[in-house]
Write a structure and sequence with these properties.
alpha/beta, 8 helices, 14 strands, nucleotide-binding, KaiC_dom, UPF0273 protein M164_0801, UPF0273_KaiC-like, ATP-binding
């Protein structure tokens, strides 16, 4: 199984080496949980390793998207100039002087075919292997019955072109679903981010709910958002009750298995690079 390493500290460990190639992964969570940061970090890390990337902006102006990357010191403008990174503007509808300077613009947000064609063009132009759609929920908020169908249409295009993708999905505070009826069955993987308040203290956590074709960690891990992005405490788990929270070490057997899986994935990446050279 070929894997795409996220290079997000701790995430590849709990994925036992990374995301299987061509998988579509739903990153779900409430407001403030770090969903968009995780997606952007995944994209930027790929850019630094020579992989092209495409960001589909459905809820944020492209100018704000670039600014949010820069907040963490991630200079995506450099890769845009080199033709390795593209932003698809599916937010403005082409309205405004800044929007008119964008190369990829979706005029009708409700037209999934138009969005798919823009994604197809951007992938080919940048030779992208990593895609982030933020947030896919926007496409079916007013038509929930179409959620699975819309996700499947995008999946066919993105996976068919050999890309691995993160679809950011929104849920309400306290909601334990994944943001759309049937969506959880259409995607290949689900990563859930949470922000829980216990006794007046907020705790961030991450759990891999499902991932086809690979072993995954079966516990909830503590997670931090730092000045450099997301960091997962992969060798610990969060033990929560209604009245208490504690961070416990993982059994050494699990730690050793995760380390071994990441090392094997790194060897696969090295072999792939050598073959390309």
């Amino acid at each position: 199984m070929k894997r795409v390493k996220t290079y997000i500290p701790g995430l590849d460990e709990i994925l036992y080496g990374g995301i299987p190639e061509r998988h579509i992964v739903l990153v779900s969570g409430g407001p403030g949980t770090g969903k968009s940061i995780l997606g952007k970090q995944f994209l930027y890390n790929g850019l630094t390793k020579g992989e092209g990337g495409v960001f589909v902006a459905l809820e944020e102006h492209p100018v704000s998207v670039r600014r949010s990357f820069e907040h963490f010191g991630w200079d995506v403008r450099k890769y845009e100039r080199e033709g390795k990174f593209a932003i698809i503007d599916a937010f403005t509808g082409g309205i405004g002087s800044a929007a008119q300077r964008e190369k990829y613009v979706v005029k009708n947000i409700d037209d999934v075919k138009e969005l798919s064609e823009n994604i197809r063009s951007a992938i080919k132009d940048t030779n992208a292997t990593r895609i982030v759609v933020d947030s896919v929920s926007t496409l079916y908020l007013t038509k929930p019955a179409m959620a699975r169908s819309i996700v499947m249409q995008l999946k066919r295009v993105i996976s068919g072109l050999g890309c691995t993708a993160i679809f950011v999905s929104q849920v309400s505070v306290g909601e334990r679903g994944f943001g759309g009826p049937g969506v959880e069955h259409a995607v290949d993987g689900i990563i859930r981010l949470d922000l829980d308040e216990v006794e007046g203290v907020m705790y961030r956590s991450i759990i891999v709910w499902k991932m086809r074709d690979t072993k995954i960690s079966m516990v909830r891990h503590p997670m931090d958002i730092t000045d450099n992005g997301i960091v997962v405490q992969w060798d610990k788990y969060l033990k929560m009750t209604n009245w208490s929270v504690s961070i416990q070490p993982l059994p050494q057997k699990d730690v050793d298995e995760m380390k071994k899986a990441v090392e094997e994935a790194e060897k696969e990446v090295e072999v792939k690079v050598e073959e390309e050279e």
